[in-house]
Design brief:
With about 650 residues, the protein is an alpha/beta fold. It has 21 helices and 17 strands.
């Protein structure tokens, strides 16, 4: 850590050296004047052998000046000019030496070298001076206010252009939606999946993405009482003719029949058995629909079939035991599950059946049943549609708890399908931004956590927003992978101590030097008779926990609208921590214009040519071209409403 030169210059030691410098510089100047006057007048000066001779000779310059002032004024001017020049040169040289002596150039880093990023650091990290036109897949992470800029100059955008994911720690009401989520949806130009709390992101960004980016924009709201939204049937993502059908249905069953916290230990057996039964029943219904050439089945229809008063469930299982109209692997699983359930005692079987039908009963809600009866889009559309697709999953606060497992199922299907190992990462058409605001409001999603380190290979970039580190740890444990697999992490003023401690430790440790002056005086003395000065070196966080929790927050007016941006911290791998400011979209005229483009009144829908259920005409099929191996584009038509 550099020592302040000004403080050392006016210290007792510095004043002594400054006084000594003045004496030496003045002596040099007088010696030059003496020598020049003697030379001009042709005088022979005696040799100076002792220090007393030097001190005495300094007065010779004044004596010679006085003696020749009237006769040789021009000589005096020349001599004293050279003396003043010598004074200046010696003074400057002495100050330079004094600066080097007092500055202590060496950096003290015994305890750490943490520091704040400079403009050069930020540029080297690739966040500043970025050509936005050349990076249509970039994300805004904050604003940079240059220290040399004027007070009213707008900040420069800090832009993350790489394919790596981004994690944001920002509490409720901190301005994260206005400063990060909305601006990025108004700038990111490829496909996007958006977790939309309350539907406000659709209102402020869908119009721009449809009208100016020419994308297909859709929203899926399973709790909406009208039919303006796009429908999505999770079972349509299962290809019953594929060998992966059993695996896909097993994954769906985990979210249809979830394990609930405190009940996990007590009901683990019944829940596991209920999931197994759910797998068998869904496979059976999908196979029947495929063979009978009917519309693809859905979850509400499956529930209706197994609880129908026209047939006992025991008879239903008997039909499953003799079913043989599908692939060998599917038929075997259906028969084995039916036989397993038939062998259970009635009391145990009753518990298993109840454990299956109870969580499925939410699909008796006609609103949810209508929203999931068919699919107006397929997950692969996000990558395969040439124009790009933006899909908003609307999460109404009043329905967040009731439908949490369904929302988690949709997100799980998205990540599994878009990171499917069968997809060649080199042939995807559209990159996809996974914008997950209030991510921890959903149940645990292991597939997202496990995909953090590979999703960039499939063209996915996660933009995850959570309130604090505790919310992640509660769901994914202390060894969560979200923050560690994000190249950029952004933090607003935290409300919880654990998050503040984490951010403080992330800023690093610096070495600081303290100066202590002790004054000593005798009992009756008013003024100190002596003093001692000492320096101590110790460590401190670059930003303490208290300083983190007191970061400037956004100021709001009476209508809760931001009128002054708050502070934020930006952490980029390989770069010192960056002090940034928030960049709400309504502070930028262009982003404000884009946000005011009205969204469509109804969600768009992708209508496909009809075909036999289960064949998935929309699924890209591999073209038999051994040289290219490209993927075909499904024939589809986009309609509004």
């Amino acid at each position: 850590m550099y020592q302040p030169f000004q403080g050392r210059l006016w210290s007792r030691r510095g004043c002594f050296f400054l006084f000594l410098l003045c004496l030496i510089s003045s002596g040099i100047a007088l010696m030059v004047v003496r020598r020049q006057l003697a030379a001009y007048l042709g005088l022979q000066l005696p040799e100076l052998q002792t220090i007393s001779d030097v001190v005495t000779s300094l007065s010779d310059s004044f004596a010679l000046t006085s003696a020749t002032a009237t006769s040789y004024p021009l000589i005096i001017v020349k001599a004293w000019s050279q003396g003043l020049l010598a004074l200046g040169v010696s003074a400057v040289s002495g100050l330079a030496l004094l600066w080097l002596a007092l500055r202590r150039i060496q950096t003290r880093d015994e305890h750490g070298t943490a520091r704040w990023a400079t403009r050069k650091d930020v540029i080297e990290a690739g966040l500043l001076e970025v050509d936005a036109q050349a990076h249509p897949h970039s994300l805004i992470v904050g604003g940079w206010q240059d220290p040399d800029a004027r007070a009213h100059d707008p900040p420069e955008y800090l832009v993350h252009t790489g394919p790596e994911s981004l994690t944001v720690f920002a509490g409720s009401g901190s301005g994260k939606t206005a400063a990060l989520v909305v601006p990025n949806l108004l700038c990111y130009e490829s496909s996007a999946f958006v977790l939309d709390i309350k539907g406000e992101l659709w209102e402020s960004t869908a119009g721009y993405r449809k009208e100016e980016l020419r994308q297909i924009v859709m929203f899926h709201d399973p709790s909406s009482e009208n039919d303006r939204g796009a429908r999505f049937n999770p079972l349509d993502e299962v290809d019953i003719t594929s060998i992966s059908a059993v695996r896909d249905v097993q994954m769906i069953a985990e979210y249809l029949v979830p394990n609930k916290g405190d009940e996990e230990n007590a009901n683990a057996h019944f829940v596991d058995a209920a999931r197994s039964l759910t797998v068998g029943v869904i496979l059976y219904e999908l196979a029947l629909s495929y063979e009978k050439d009917k519309q693809s089945t859905n979850i509400a229809s499956v529930l209706s079939r197994i609880t129908s008063p026209n047939q006992s469930f025991s008879d239903y299982l008997s039909d499953m035991q003799i079913f043989d109209q599908s692939s060998e692997s599917v038929v075997r699983v259906i028969r084995e599950i039916a036989t397993e359930m038939k062998a259970k005692e009635s009391k145990e079987f009753s518990g298993v059946l109840s454990s299956m039908t109870t969580p499925l009963s939410k699909f008796r809600d006609p609103i949810l049943a209508r929203a999931t009866e068919a699919s107006d889009f397929r997950i692969r559309d996000l990558m395969d549609q040439k124009s790009g697709v933006t899909l908003y999953l609307t999460v109404r606060p009043r329905e967040r708890d009731r439908l949490a497992d369904y929302f988690a199922l949709v997100v799980n299907l998205l990540f599994r399908e878009l990171t499917n190992e069968k997809i060649d990462a080199s042939v995807y058409r559209r990159k996809v931004l996974m914008s997950l605001d209030e991510f921890t409001s959903l149940p645990p999603l292991p597939v997202v956590s496990q995909s953090m380190d590979i999703m960039r290979s499939y063209g996915l970039k996660a933009f995850i927003v959570v309130q604090d580190i505790e919310s992640i740890n509660n769901l994914y444990g202390d060894h969560e992978t979200f923050s560690s697999n994000s190249k950029v992490r952004v933090a607003y003023t935290p409300a919880k101590l654990k998050t503040a401690e984490l951010l403080s430790s992330m800023t690093g440790t610096a070495t600081v030097t303290d100066k202590t002056v002790n004054h000593q005086r005798k009992n009756l003395d008013v003024v100190a008779t002596s003093s001692t000065e000492s320096e101590g070196i110790h460590q401190r966080p670059l930003m303490t926990v208290d300083e983190v929790m007191r970061m400037k927050i956004a100021k709001l007016d009476a209508n809760d609208r931001m009128i002054e941006a708050g502070e934020s911290l930006v952490f980029v791998k390989g770069c010192p921590p960056i002090k940034a400011i928030q960049t709400p979209y309504f502070f930028d005229d262009e982003l404000l214009r884009r946000s005011k483009i009205p969204p469509p009144e109804r969600s768009e829908r992708i209508v496909r040519a009809s075909s036999k259920p289960g064949t998935h005409p929309d699924r890209p099929r591999q073209i038999e071209d051994p040289t290219k191996g490209r993927v075909s584009v499904p024939v589809a038509e986009v309609v509004n409403g």
